[in-house]
Each structure stands twice: as C-alpha cells, then as structure tokens.
Amino acid sequence: MPTFKLRMRTSAALLAGAAGLTAIGAGVVPATASAATASPQAIAAQIVPANQLSSFSQIISHESSWNVTATNPSSGAYGLAQALPGSKMATHGSDWKTSATTQIRWALDYMNSRYGSPNAAWTFWQNHHWY
C-alpha cells in the first residue's frame, strides 16, 4: 500500500473518531450499530458533504442546539433546522417530528435549494442571524 493511501485512511479515521464515527475501508459508518442511537451530529457527518459540514453544523447549532424537537415558542418553527412550518419536512419522511435523519436531509436540501450550499447559507446566516 502506498504511503499516501495510508495517510488518507489515517486522516479519515482521526476525523471520523472525532465525530463519533468509525472508518471502515473507504467508507465511514456510525460507531453505533443503529442510526436510531447515533447522535444527530454523527448522522449529519454521514449525509452532509465533508466540505459543507462545518457550515451546516454552525447553522444547526445556532438554530436548535442539535435538539430534534426544538420548538420556537413565538413562531412555531420546529426541529434541527427550525423549519416553519415544521410539517414541511414531511416531504422527506413521515417521521419528521422525531427523526434526525429526516430533518438533516430536509435541511441540506433546503440549504442547497435556497442558498446553493450550506457554506453559502452560513455566510447568509452570519450577516442576518437567520437563514
């Protein structure tokens, strides 16, 4: 095995370990056996492209503190991405009220369709404190 491949796998393993994941071969899988027990952050690390993950994480941290059932008492915005109304996330799954996976997929699609990417959405958020 060439040295550069070993370094890439080692780097992937270090990054995956920091995110609570395990690197296996070329892929990264949750360290836990079930997505039901994986943290929302670990699920996002599987779904969101690596070069967009930091921005995605910043937005979700500010919007909901990674709380799947976060509800804004004033507006009724709901979930990780604070969708308004929350029921619009049903386009990505009937389990939208409780599934981090469904909410993350919806949020990523929202950021991509409205802003072009999570990185662009984060730039907008930094300027306006909403997205």
From TrEMBL:
- How far does the signal peptide extend, from start to end residue? 1-35
Q: Which part of the chain is the Transglycosylase SLT domain?
A: 51-122
Q: Which InterPro entries match?
A: Lysozyme-like_dom_sf, Transglycosylase_SLT_dom_1
| Matching Pfam families | SLT
Keywords on this record?
Signal
Superkingdom field: Bacteria
Which named protein is this?
A: Transglycosylase SLT domain-containing protein
What species does this protein belong to?
A: Kitasatospora purpeofusca
